[in-house]
Amino acid sequence: MQISQQSLTATVIETFDLASIDRGVRQTMDRGIDGSGLSREQVADRMGISVHQLNAWLAPNRQGSRFPCVLLSLFCEATGSDALKRLILGPQLRELLELGEHAAAILDERARRRVLKVPGNRIPADEKRNGRKGSCAQ
Q1: Nearest of 83, 68, 94 to residue 31 by alpha carbon
Q2: 3-class SS of residue 128
Q3: How far apart are CA 40 and CA 33, in angstroms?
Q4: Beta carbons within 10 angstroms of residue 28's beta carbon
Q5: Half-sphere exposure of residue 16, counting CA atoms within 13 Å on the CB side?
Q6: Maximum alpha-carbon separation in the chain
Q7: pTM of this structure
Q8: pLDDT (tens digit per residue) in 62-112
């Protein structure tokens, strides 16, 4: 069987990408735990797994032990960081998310609630937060 240079190159690139993604996942998880102020034991307990399993997922030399994405939300909840979710998104979707976050920051609360269809806080329109009734221009 003859392997073309093109398919060999593609295989090397895919392997490199997988290795860099794996390394990124391990490093991001490690930073997430460090930034949480919790121990590995506490994070593992919050996720409902053993600390030995968590350690295996974090160890750079344990290539056969990779973090399962089905536990992504549990890890992010346990550490209080969404960095791992953002890493998994990839650069294009992450950029789109950040664009949406910037747009949301620009919109005022009422506009954001209308766009996202979130129910308001039920404060009558004539009662302003500054305690005055009527227009803000008064």
Answers
A1: 83
A2: coil
A3: 7
A4: 20
A5: 6
A6: 83
A7: 0.61
A8: 888 889 988 999 999 999 999 999 998 888 999 999 999 888 888 877 787
Here the tokens at position 91 are 């650069």
Tokens of 123: 């404060």
Q: Are the C-beta atoms of 56 and 11 separated by less than 8 Å?
A: no
The string of pLDDT tens digits covering residues 46-70 is 999 999 999 999 998 888 888 998 8
Quick check: helix, strand or coil at residue 133?
Answer: strand
Tally helices (H) and strands (E) across the chain.
7, 0
User: Mind listing the domains of the chain with CATH numbers?
Assistant: 5-89 (1.10.260.40), 90-122 (no CATH)
Matching residue, tokens 């954001």: 112
Task: Give the position of tokens 């979130």.
Answer: 118
Q: Is 127 helix (H, G, I), strand (E, B) or coil?
A: strand
Q: Report the alpha-carbon distance of residue 66 to residue 76 in Å, rounded.
A: 16
